[in-house]
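Risk mitigation, structural track. In case the binding assays with 2'-deoxycytidine-5'-monophosphate fail to produce interpretable data, a predicted complex structure has been prepared as a fallback.
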Amino acid sequence: MVIAIDGPAGAGKSSVARGVAAALGFTYLDTGAMYRCVALASLRRSRPPGELAEQISLDLGRRVLLDGEDVTEAIRAPEVSERASQVAADPAVRRAMVAEQRRIMAHGDWVADGRDIGTVVAPDAALKVFLTADPRERARRRAAEMGADPETVLAEQMIRDERDRNRPESPLRAAEGAVQLDTTGLTLEQVVERVVALARSERAAAR
Ligand code: DC
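Fallback model:
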């Protein structure tokens, strides 16, 4: 069974996805980390990102390995976030990432988070959730995580949101049949509980 969790940066996707995966005994797939690895590779090597996306080897366990190197922290740097949003608009990069994500999730129980999981990667997912939150709240959460200035984070977030929403290739939007959940003012536990309850009722209905 696949649970797809999409939404803009800072809506709480990765914390929610990790919490849901732990509660249900599913495996978590961080698809944003995959785009971030392509971005890091393209900052280091002057090759077309589409070509790099085909060539790199990724290991997405508890630590993220790019061609065998632990890049778990390196892929969270602001310049990588910015480059990730650019490479994610490249159709050749998306093709390679989507194929890899489908291959990974072909068997077993998964919670995947990203921007296009419910719309493109796994439109047949048993449960699709679209998480949102007020932009100021999202920037505040990210800034607290990174120890950065909330106003700067908000300004950068607006540019990336805009790019993710308006790119011609797989723009960020809620999938058909997705449950929309506004996390503003909710605790992580409340959101996890709600998604777990939805997943359990999907599973019961499928039996
Ligand atoms: O979720 P994140 O911030 O780690 O994602 C990094 C970038 O990759 C962000 O600009 C959105 C993009 N992305 C995407 O286009 N599709 C996905 N499935 C996941 C991330």
